[in-house]
Amino acid sequence: MSTKEFGSLSIEEQQKLVEDVAECLKKHGLGDTPVKIYRENVCPLSAAKVEGRSTLKCEAASNDEKVVEDCNNDLKKCLEGISGTHVSVAQKIKAGDDYTNITKVQGLEGEEELTIEHKEGQVLLIDFWATWCPPCQAPMAHNQAMLDKKGEEWKDKIRIIGLSIDSDKAKLKSHVEDKKWTSPEHYFRGSSDCSKVYGVTGVPHVMLIDTKGKIVFKGHPANRPNLEEDMENLLKGETISGEGCASSAAPEGNDGGDSDIDYAKCMKEIDEFT
Questions:
Q1: All CATH 3.40.30.10 domain ranges in the chain, comma separated
Q2: Per-residue pLDDT in tens (0 to 9) along the chain, 274 residues
Q3: How far apart are CA 123 and CA 118, in angstroms?
Q4: Which of the listed CATH numbers 3.40.30.10, 3.40.50.880, 2.60.40.10, 3.40.250.10 matches domain 102-248?
Q5: Which among 26, 142, 219, 247 has the fewest CB atoms less than 10 Å away?
Q6: What does the alpha-carbon distance between residue 29 and residue 182 come to, in Å, rounded to a whole number?
Q7: What are the start and end residues of each CATH 3.30.300 domain in the chain?
Q8: Which CATH code fits 4-93+250-273?
């Protein structure tokens, strides 16, 4: 079977493929995932003309293994014979999903494997971090400062948990003690698969879990400039919004792009400009 490069398709064919991929995602309950076309135009100084390339990109996620498998199979059929695309569905837990207990972690003392559980009525902040990560230090210091200020008031209601991805637990323990960051609950990842399960590919990375056990935010702590207020609002049963929040997801039925944009007109303007 011959293969066509996505960028060689007509504008109408590209747009139809975007709609087909978006419909496939919607079928499997992943309709809030955007489907995007990236167009790159390069003009090397030695070239006689501008060179362009278009790519179809989409990265979806689900915590359901069967949904991931079935959707990837359908997407493969949808994109059969087409190259120059980056479309995939990965298994990972995201904002909006229920929190699944993190298991096989260790405390700073001993080798016993522990579980980070959520109890109904509690708010959890879980901070994936590392001693060797410079951007992780300020958020961890802030965790300590929040507990210095609110520790007694939050007792048994709001928990702040540091989950280190370090490879050396002794170094972690020494670092925490030297910095006097002893108020948060500290855990060592050890043999736990929590980073894979929760799709944590870089640190710092925080998760906020509400009183019902739902992950309401997942991402870089810089996207939540007032975590103290966030957690107190969650404790009251209120919602939070913004980048990385469950409440900020696109509504079901997303067509894979901005329906107000005339794709053919955009491509024509780029061609005229180049």
A1: 102-248
A2: 688 999 889 989 999 999 999 999 999 999 888 898 888 877 777 777 777 788 999 988 887 889 999 999 999 999 999 998 999 898 778 898 999 999 999 999 999 999 999 999 999 999 999 999 999 999 999 999 999 999 999 999 999 999 999 999 999 999 999 999 999 999 999 999 999 888 898 999 999 999 999 999 999 999 999 999 999 999 999 999 998 898 665 444 444 445 566 777 877 777 777 6
A3: 8
A4: 3.40.30.10
A5: 247
A6: 42
A7: 4-93+250-273
A8: 3.30.300
